[in-house]
Write a structure and sequence with these properties.
By secondary structure, this protein is an alpha/beta fold. It has eleven helices and seven strands. It has a single domain, classed as Rossmann fold, CATH 3.40.50.
Length: 272
Amino acid sequence: MARPTVKAVLLSPQRELGDKPLLIVGPSLGTSSLLWSQAGTLLGPDVDVIAWDLPGHGVSPAAEEAFTVADLADAVIGLVDSIAPGARFHYAGVSLGGATGLQLGIKHGDRLKSLSVQCSGAKLGTAEGWLERAETVRTQGTPVMIQGSAQRWFAPGFMESQPELSSRLLHSLRDADRFSYAFCCEALAGFDVRDQLGTIRVPTQVVAGALDEVAPPSMAGEVAAGITSGGGTATAVSLEGVAHLAPFEAPGHVAELLKGLITWTETQGAGA
């Protein structure tokens, strides 16, 4: 296992970093920074928004060997240190990006100002299911996942109402490196931090899509309860009409939730 290399895209206006809060946003498996482009634009006037891509997705190079979700968290810290060495930051991530956020909270909590875990959980799916998907994609390529992902990602009617946008995101999946995608699946197969949630001390927001079959609202409630049981601060929020990709399906709502969390932590001094 080794820390993979991840690259990122600036979603907010180009300006000197440091004057505004820094928000790092993370992807769902098979997506790219496009997942966050609309929410990032909405947050851009008040927050510096940087979106990282999974290995072999978007602008990130393909992975050459297996890695864990904890390795992805280390990679995010490495990315931030390459941009703003030692900086503390706000973090929001979806699905695998949200799992990476939980690992950041557990392993690198001193670097976080706030955490937003979206459409994710402390354990996602089954190890057997992820390993089977890894083998399928490794042998057949990522296009084999397009139909199933479209059904999981979006609430009913979203693709019909946003055909161009949803098609572009599905192209991110088609273009992803098959071996890196498989490594991501294997990382999720080994991911289970349910017994470590109580160590998270950063203010945390857990967001679920009411129609998400992968990470339903009950899972968000379990994450929030696990964090608060250890003395941490966490709230769970469910978004109506949303499935598995909250910032893509409901960018305005997600931007408002994040703006509220970031403003609260900055003014409370937790972000100091």
